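For reproducibility, we list the full input for the PBG complex.
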Amino acid sequence: MRETLRETPDMTGYAFPGTYPTTRMRRNRADDWTRRLVAETRLGRDDLVWPIFVTDGVGPREPVSSMPGVHRLSVDLLVETAGEAVRLGIPAVALFPCVSPDLRTDDAREAVNPDNLLCRAIAAVKAAHPGLGVITDVALDPYTSHGHDGLMHAGRILNDETNAVLVEQALVQVRAGADIVAPSDMMDGRIGAIRRALDEAGFSDAKIVSYAAKYASAWYGPFRDAVGSSSALKGDKRTYQMDPANSDEALREVALDLAEGADMVMVKPGLPYLDIVQRVKQAFGVPTLAYQVSGEYAMIKAAAGNDWIDYEAALLESLTALKRAGADAVLTYGAADAARLLQR
Ligand code: PBG
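The corresponding predicted structure, in tokenized form, follows.
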């Protein structure tokens, strides 16, 4: 749109049909009905994915202190909450396990246990709510004693050795009923390896959403509290997650993951990376998700908790901004709140 306008610039650089006072931009903003009529971006319940934390045991609902309003749920409560997602018209949930510390090992073997917490959670949700999309995280950090997303040797994160485990992890998740596996680990070549393994095992319909442009970000702090990996994590994730300074590199990551068979791609975090969302969507035109991550949610909640900003307005505005930048859908811990607000 902008490009065509620029071909016939006036003094502002844009070919407006007129200038003030003939043109008054406020006319279209004057009434609620005109604002609705000319809105370029529309946020709807269909654009939401709800990330949910799951924990072991029956009955617990543990608050995550750095994420007000968010809880770790036992599988029985998760099933109830998934029912809430269905009632609210949210298309999919993304499940993240908080694994008990005694199951975290150097080889992350619990990740490939077909009866692990996440697999039991997937099966329970799909049994109760077959029409709800279930997205699962493929990465080893909930299962490693050192909190990294891959296997570690002599202080280095091993790529190809990690891929071999990620493939098995994706397989147990899909066998348990996951509709979409979402590798968030940032190893090279893992999308292709997972795609081949799924196809060979007869799961050619299982989808992959790749965390293609995932940055080494300070905004993941509250998430690591929620899944209990922050105290375990040694060092940072900068040898595999992207440098926040880079943008061309995001396009290469996305191109590789698409070539390897990703069905959808993700940009993460969300609001600090709107430019990446826009470039990815424009360059590839593929289904593009943005992840409004834990730290973004925590910032909104903290400010709202101090009565410094309005939670509901800030949530909807930030989600609309991600859509405006080009996201087809947004993962947000405020998904249920947003869906309720959008119902009104
Ligand atoms: C781990 C993973 C992380 C998130 C999703 N999957 C954290 C990390 O990479 O350290 C972050 C999500 C959030 O902050 O909301 N593979």
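The first strand starts at residue 48 and ends at 55. The chain has a mean pLDDT of 95. Both points were considered when choosing residues for closer inspection.
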